Amino acid sequence: MTASPDPRKNRLLAALPDGEWRRWRPQLEWVEMPLGQVLYESGGTLSHVYFPITSIVSLLYVMENGASAEIAVVGNEGIVGISLFMGGQSTPSRAVVQSAGQGYRLKAQVMKEEFDQAGPVLHLLLRYTQALITQMAQTAVCNRHHSLDQQLCRWLLLSLDRLQGSELVMTQELIANMLGVRREGVTEGALKLQQAGLIRYARGRISVLNRPGLEERTCECYGVVKKEYDRLLPEKLAS
């Protein structure tokens, strides 16, 4: 049986004051988050919020014809389900696990009660929401103005920031769905990065060999998003 990780490996949970942490800890439920699991569908009512620890969740906007594109990624820096405490109850996006791992979830009612107390939890979650909105806006700009090569580098770097290692388990089809492009475009982009010695891609596994090289190759969008998260959120605890 897999041991459950420390909940405070998630930056938001780690930032909770002692009083809030003591209230939350007994109500946090450890969950496995397998690749491809849908945490919520577009228009669905949220029963829980999720705090990834070793997993990454992709927020996708799905069109009427089934086409989709990623609008943000959430990992151990954040929470999945902001519409719950922002007053919406549901959201037009879909949340899908893009990198398998573990996390914790908290019942919707508990989260709403904590948020409504207008204490430190409210301010922490609002700062996180501002950072997430920045990521969504920058993703939209990036998808409109930058090359697929740059978008792929940005996506890889954002994913790496939310993982402990340097390897992602990810099929080209899933990456194509995330970026809203044809699979052939992802194949070509990944091949370019591999030929440049930046990554190794085989059998659905992407190993990053040269992170500084990826940072040089990507557009400014990655730096804008990272700077905003670093500015608004508390530092990640040491492992």
From TrEMBL:
InterPro entries: cNMP-bd_dom, cNMP-bd_dom_sf, Env_Response_Regulators, HTH_CRP, RmlC-like_jellyroll, WH_DNA-bd_sf. SMART domains: cNMP. Keywords: DNA-binding, Transcription, Transcription regulation. This is CRP-like cAMP-binding protein. The keyword Hydrolase does not apply. Pfam families: cNMP_binding, HTH_Crp_2. Residues 146-212 form the HTH crp-type domain. The lineage of its organism: Bacteria, Pseudomonadati, Pseudomonadota, Betaproteobacteria, Burkholderiales. It comes from the Bacteria. It comes from Variovorax soli.
